[in-house]
Design goal:
Strand order of the largest sheet: 7-6-16-17-18-15-19-14
Distance between the termini: 35 Å
Shape: globular
CATH topology of the domain at 1-59 and 81-113 and 210-282 and 301-319 and 456-523: FAD/NAD(P)-binding domain
Radius of gyration: 23 Å
CATH class of the domain at 1-59 and 81-113 and 210-282 and 301-319 and 456-523: Alpha Beta
Number of strands: 20
Largest sheet: 8 strands, mixed
CATH architecture of the domain at 1-59 and 81-113 and 210-282 and 301-319 and 456-523: 3-Layer(bba) Sandwich
Number of helices: 15
CATH superfamily of the domain at 1-59 and 81-113 and 210-282 and 301-319 and 456-523: FAD/NAD(P)-binding domain
Strand content: 15-25%
């Protein structure tokens, strides 16, 4: 839920108002759009500081046909639930057809390309299941516990793991394999967050996808629009600290400290200016491997968003506890991989085995694999500059420190060749494996904090979007308490919208968080499924 807990109202917006946004992810980009569209702040007065040389944060995607393509993940969207995202998309022209908005392009694409999975789970005997009746795999005891979790107040279950609530039997069901692989949950993940997902997506079947990868379909058109408005995209800038006004009655940022190419710089924040901070990062310190090398894990080399959060949390109470999230790399690291193939051999074998055409299934999960590995074969082309003779697909494993079933190496220590070999053996493509290895490039990526947002936590471990007593500071991103499910594009966009509307004191309301449990039709569907 949106919370406004100011000590005093912010100064009215003028033509001199400056907005400084820390981080170049979707939260900052959305916040900038809402400041311009709804707050009527001139684009030239908005500054986005990003430590990398590219905007987008976790919503990445890059490559070329002569080398390879790569993305560290893919995001899904819910038609009913992503109201802040659709609002954002309605303001941005399509990159490929400027006469349409991103929202128009998005819905038209998904109307033509519907999800019709033939296979979703594959077991160790290579039996396939489309999981249309996955709810049947849960016992009545499991279903009762789910219902009880939904009606239990969050304050009663803070700082607890999922496996402290459910019996071990749940974690061997098709329901769990789909839920865990779809959203990235482990049995040790946060119970409150699990409850939020149950509440929000109960019996949901409204998932849609972007026409291309998340960078081409979202980040490029948004940054293009922001550039046209005159927004200052400050690349290579690492914000390290904030100075606060020495006052116990209000929280006011007076100065921003940052490094540009190693040189120390600062910005004086004047009265009437605002600071939006992305605190923490799922993709900080991520490393790529290659076909012959595993990605290296470098610990405690935190990028700016974590360092900044650690520094300011020491100065004032109420700004969260970053160590809860970034202090457990052994529990939060994740491996994803992305494959570029010079021909369609793998794609044809995949279609023959699963019955899924590219894009028809969000994921295919090997439920008995040691890595609990899933692969995603998107609609082709997945990149705007991807030629017809190139195919791309990707995947990930939820248990990166376990050995493969066929490649006896921990996933976190696997090269691209190792991972591609394991995938082909899981499918039974051993005969074609040499050709697939010869014509494909698999790039593994290791992200130390990719699952950090799911660490068990107390509500106070994450700052509110607008902290108590704040006059000009807001937080955004996956490590901010907005009442929304984390690990969603919607949660980041919502934070950006909440920050803009609250701090600028706009006479506009952020759409309420959608909850399927508040929709009577969802209850009827869930009840009907449970009684089958």
């Amino acid at each position: 839920m949106e919370e406004k807990r100011f000590v005093k109202k912010s100064t009215a917006v003028t033509d001199k108002t400056q907005v400084y946004l820390v981080g170049g992810g979707i939260a900052s980009l959305a916040g900038a759009v809402f400041c311009i569209r709804d707050g009527h702040i001139p684009g030239k007065n908005i500054h986005i500081f990003e430590v990398l040389d590219v905007m987008g944060g976790a919503l990445d995607g890059e490559g070329s046909p002569d080398k390879y393509f790569v993305a560290r993940g893919a995001r899904k969207y819910d038609v009913d639930a992503f109201n802040c995202t659709w609002d954002l998309f309605s303001a941005i022209p399509s990159l490929t057809n400027p006469k349409k908005t991103l929202k128009d392009e998005f819905f038209e694409f998904n109307k033509l390309h519907k999800k019709t999975p033939k296979s979703r789970l594959i077991d160790k005997n290579r039996n396939k299941d489309d999981v249309s009746n996955m709810g049947h795999s849960c016992s009545w005891g499991d279903r009762i516990k789910m219902f009880l979790l939904i009606i239990t107040p969050e304050s009663w279950i803070e700082n607890r793991r999922i496996d402290s609530w459910f019996a071990p039997s749940l974690f061997k069901t098709d329901f769990w394999y789909v839920f865990a692989s779809m959203f990235g949950f482990g049995t040790g993940s946060d119970l409150v967050e699990c409850r939020r997902y149950f509440t929000r997506f109960m019996y949901g079947k409204g998932e849609v996808v972007t026409p291309y990868n998340q960078y081409d379909s979202m980040i490029r058109p948004i940054t293009k629009w922001l550039g046209e408005q005159g927004v200052n995209l400050e690349m290579g800038c690492k914000v390290t600290d904030l100075d606060f006004k020495p006052s116990q009655d209000e929280l006011t940022v007076e100065r921003i400290h940052y490094l540009r190419n190693g040189e120390e710089k600062e910005v004086v924040v004047s009265k009437g200016d605002y600071v939006f901070v992305t605190n923490g990062s799922m993709t900080a310190d991520s490393r790529r491997g290659s076909m012959t090398e595993a990605p290296a894990l470098e610990t405690r080399k935190l990028d700016g968003s974590w360092t900044l959060w650690e520094n300011i949390a020491k100065k004032r109470p109420g700004l969260g506890n970053p160590s809860v999230f970034n202090g457990h790399i052994d529990k939060t690291k994740w491996i994803t991989f992305f494959v570029t193939s010079k021909d369609s051999t793998f794609l044809k074998l995949y279609e023959q085995f699963t019955g899924n055409k590219p894009g028809q299934a969000d994921l295919v999960t090997f439920k008995d694999s040691n890595w609990l590995m899933s692969i995603h074969v998107p609609y082709q082309p997945h990149f705007i500059n991807q030629p017809e003779n190139i195919t791309v697909w990707g995947g990930y494993g939820l248990y990166p420190d376990k050995e493969g079933d066929y490649v006896k190496v921990k996933m976190s220590e696997c090269s691209g060749k190792d991972i591609l070999t394991e995938v082909c053996h899981q499918f039974g493509f051993e005969k074609e494996l040499p050709h697939i290895l010869e014509t494909s490039t698999c790039i593994p990526s290791l992200m130390p904090y990719e699952c950090a947002q799911f660490m068990p936590r107390k509500r106070s471990d994450r700052p509110l979007v607008v902290p108590k007593a704040s006059t000009n500071l807001a937080f955004m991103g996956q490590f901010t308490e907005s009442g929304e499910c984390i690990y969603l594009v919607e949660s980041s966009v919502r934070c950006g919208q909440m920050a803009a509307y609250s701090l600028l004191n706009l006479d506009k309301k952020v759409p309420p968080v959608y909850k399927a449990t508040h929709q009577i039709r969802r209850w009827f569907k869930a009840l009907a499924a449970a009684l089958k």
